[in-house]
Write a structure and sequence with these properties.
By secondary structure, the chain is of the alpha/beta class. It has one domain: Alpha-Beta Barrel (TIM Barrel). The protein is built from 9 helices and 8 strands. Strands 1-2-3-4-5-6-7-8 form an 8-stranded parallel β-sheet. Strand 3, helix 3 and strand 4 form a beta-alpha-beta unit.
């Protein structure tokens, strides 16, 4: 039993007609639960609908930092309503993105300030609703977005657990997350030959500190690299990380599933 702890099934890359077969293929690969994450107000209803239609699917509700500039001033009212849906198991995907340039009409400073505002408000919502939070950080160089997200997390760590998804950094960089009670998650990047750091980190992370994810439709693992990613491929990620850790895929699946069930408070 494996859980895909982070994907985006409301993406236009997943036509509605594909979803049932996609869930079936995941089940054939022992991927029994799937968390689909919203990235904007517009795709919240679709993610919740998918969770209603398929017992294997649960949803996270949030606004991605790259969509922060499009969130209306009263976005939190709608987000609060969506987040109280019984199939919503987390707040997110939210976070900070210093990789993509500011959109037209926004200075870099104002764009990043808006992202920080939304991240803090997402933490407040998570604390109010007793849900955990899924965080995205990305920089062109360095780790400024990670450090800023950590500084915000510290203010809420006694109320909310955070996962820093698609973690690209060293085990040393993950330690402050662990010290706050947070966790990290790994994608198909761990299977890429030119991405040694994420696999090295996954190899040495203690059991209970990380989850597996596809981030589908993006970042398909080897041997599917370059294709549309999907939850079934969590199995490939599990096999690759397990081999690097010197443990069986079944063992890795067991402890990452336990971690995901705890984080998302799944039945």
């Amino acid at each position: 039993m494996i859980i895909d702890s982070h994907c985006h099934l409301a993406s236009s890359k997943f036509p509605e007609a594909d979803i049932a077969e996609l869930v079936g293929r995941a089940r054939q690969q022992d991927v029994t639960q799937i968390i689909t994450l919203a990235t904007s107000l517009d795709d919240c209803p679709r993610n919740l609908q998918l969770a209603e239609q398929h017992a294997e699917i649960y949803a996270g509700i949030g606004i991605h930092p790259c969509d922060a500039h499009e969130a209306p001033e009263d976005y939190l009212d709608a987000l609060t309503t969506y987040a109280q849906h019984p199939r919503c198991v987390a707040i997110g995907e939210t976070g900070l993105d210093h990789f993509h340039p500011a959109p037209e009409g926004w200075s870099t400073e104002d764009y990043h300030r808006r992202q920080s505002q939304l991240l803090e408000e997402h933490f407040q919502l998570a604390a109010r609703l007793d849900k955990n939070i899924v965080i995205h950080t990305r920089d062109q160089t360095g780790d400024a977005s990670l450090q800023e997200a950590l500084s915000i997390y510290r203010r809420y760590a006694d109320q909310v657990q955070a996962v820093f998804h698609c973690f690209p950094f060293s085990l040393e960089a993950a330690q402050p997350i662990f010290e706050l009670g947070g966790i990290i998650s790994f994608t198909g990047i761990t299977t890429f030959k030119n991405a040694t750091t994420p696999l090295e980190t996954a190899t040495h992370c203690p059991a209970g500190s990380f989850m597996l994810e596809t981030d589908a439709p993006y970042l398909a693992p080897v041997p599917h690299r370059g294709k549309r990613n999907e939850p079934a491929y969590t199995q490939n990620i599990a096999e690759h990380i397990a081999a690097a850790r010197g443990e069986t895929t079944e063992c890795l699946a067991a402890h990452t599933t336990k971690t995901a069930k705890s984080f998302y408070k799944l039945p």
